[in-house]
Amino acid sequence: EAGVAQSPRYKIIEKRQSVAFWCNPISGHATLYWYQQILGQGPKLLIQFQNNGVVDDSQLPKDRFSAERLKGVDSTLKIQPAKLEDSAVYLCASSVTGATVSYEQYFGPGTRLTVT
Amino acid sequence: GQQLNQSPQSMFIQEGEDVSMNCTSSSIFNTWLWYKQDPGEGPVLLIALYKAGELTSNGRLTAQFGITRKDSFLNISASIPSDVGIYFCAPANDYKLSFGAGTTVTVRA
Lengths: 116, 109
Fold this sequence. Notes:
The complex is a heterodimer of chains A (116) and B (109).
Chain A: E1 5-7, E2 10-13, E3 19-24, E4 31-37, E5 44-50, E6 53-56, E7 65-68, E8 75-79, E9 88-95, E10 106-107, E11 111-115
Parallel strand pairs in A: 2-11
Antiparallel strand pairs in A: 1-3, 3-8, 4-5, 4-9, 5-6, 7-8, 9-10, 9-11
Chain B: E1 4-7, E2 10-13, E3 19-25, E4 31-37, E5 44-49, E6 55-58, E7 61-65, E8 71-76, E9 85-93, E10 96-97, E11 103-107
Parallel strand pairs in B: 2-11
Antiparallel strand pairs in B: 1-3, 3-8, 4-5, 4-9, 6-7, 7-8, 9-10, 9-11
């Protein structure tokens, strides 16, 4: 079974530029998450989708971050404009919906963003 | 707000040693998960605990969900070089995970 796919793996941009990350979850996983992981810290949830609907975006800085999951499968996270403090690894995870296994999230390799 | 403390922050292991790390919270959780993250990779699920008091093993790994539902520990027995990495506890409520700051495990020279 293929895992969570993310691209690109690395991105370097200048502050005030825009950037987009892409995620394709494990086939059949209805729930998709985007996390931000700053160096030396654990991942922090940015947004959670179930199918193509947003379940929780309370931690998403909506003035500059946006995310969509139009067809309920793959998802895009965008930052516009980027700030220096956005330098981090952006992780996508997915989980099966329903029953206790929904707690078990499976992560992609992440996109390492450097803002200069 | 909820506080999550993971300790130790870092540890050195020697091949063959048993190691232990734990996580405590100021809040009650329904589920405790443990993940391991290698450099340049995403976290990988190691063990999931669903009941207070539950003790679960996965190979050389053993984890327990505390009776109070506010803590959990992870033990690694007979450590090997590939055990190096960052271990995260991730307790959960309502299908949302909260990650600790991690325990970094490195090999003692």
